[in-house]
Amino acid sequence: AQSVTQLGSHVSVSEGALVLLRCNYSSSVPPYLFWYVQYPNQGLQLLLKYTSAATLVKGINGFEAEFKKSETSFHLTKPSAHMSDAAEYFCAVSADSWGKLQFGAGTQVVVTP
Amino acid sequence: NAGVTQTPKFRILKIGQSMTLQCTQDMNHNYMYWYRQDPGMGLKLIYYSVGAGITDKGEVPNGYNVSRSTTEDFPLRLELAAPSQTSVYFCASSRPGQGPSQSNTEAFFGQGTRLTVV
């Protein structure tokens, strides 16, 4: 069985500051890991995914994440926050078959001018 | 490109009523899913399907039913609605990935159905 823990339900960052969203996973087998973003009143959109090809994964909108097996982590970062980054971010893991996803509780990001 | 389309976008139901949430995708994806999203809880899998005629329960299937008669459509049926089913429902689809579990694949989500049971 696998699970995902996101540290911090709400994060407030200043425009131009570093965005860091934390995600830790537990899985009995090598996992596939994903970050999704949800803008207000929208569905979820894939930011990036880890599928064992490279530990540092680059995604859309300047986001990237690093897979650290020793720490069972997959933290999401962006060097400089933009007002348009205000959204809810979900970390998810899929180690089971058929593409089923186990989601973290989500982190709401607020960007202040 | 339509992608995954859900209808309706909003619905208010009375306790004990029933309804069907519609989901259709035009990407010819084999896999389809229904998730519910509750505040502070992330998304939980209700049911999933790996192809027409094949469905299986997810983490929270009680009170729901699904069918998959075509590749494109995956409706979710609520019988005897209860306040605990107040939630936002998302349909998603994906194609099989690579590797043994075929799970390294992106899921595409609809815009959701906000359901309130009163």
* Biggest sheet statistics of chain B: 7 strands, mixed
Indicate the radius of gyration of chain B in whole angstroms: 14 Å
Tell me the strand percentage band of chain B.
Answer: over 45%
User: Strand share of the residues of chain A?
Assistant: over 45%
Largest sheet of chain A: 6 strands, mixed
Q: Which two chains touch over the largest interface? A: A-B, 29 and 30 residues
Which whole number gives the mean pLDDT of chain B?
Answer: 93
Overview of the structural elements:
The complex is a heterodimer of chains A (113) and B (118). With 113 residues, chain A is mainly beta. Helices cover 0% and strands 55% of the residues of chain A. Chain A contains no helices and 11 strands. In chain A, strands 2, 4, 5, 9, 10 and 11 form a 6-stranded mixed β-sheet that branches. Chain A has a 5-stranded antiparallel β-sheet with strand order 1-3-8-7-6, with no helix packed on it. Chain A is globular. In chain A, 41% of the residues are buried. By secondary structure, chain B is mostly beta strands. In chain B, 0% of the residues lie in helices and 49% in strands. In chain B, strands 2, 4, 5, 6, 9, 10 and 11 form a 7-stranded mixed β-sheet that branches. Chain B has a 4-stranded antiparallel β-sheet with strand order 1-3-8-7, with no helix packed on it. In chain B, strand 4 and strand 5 (42-51) form a beta hairpin. The mean pLDDT of chain B is 93. The A-B interface holds A 4, 9, 29, 32, 34, 36, 41-46, 49, 51-52, 90, 94-106 and B 4, 31, 33, 35, 40-45, 48, 50, 58, 90, 92, 94, 96-97, 99, 101-107, 109-112.
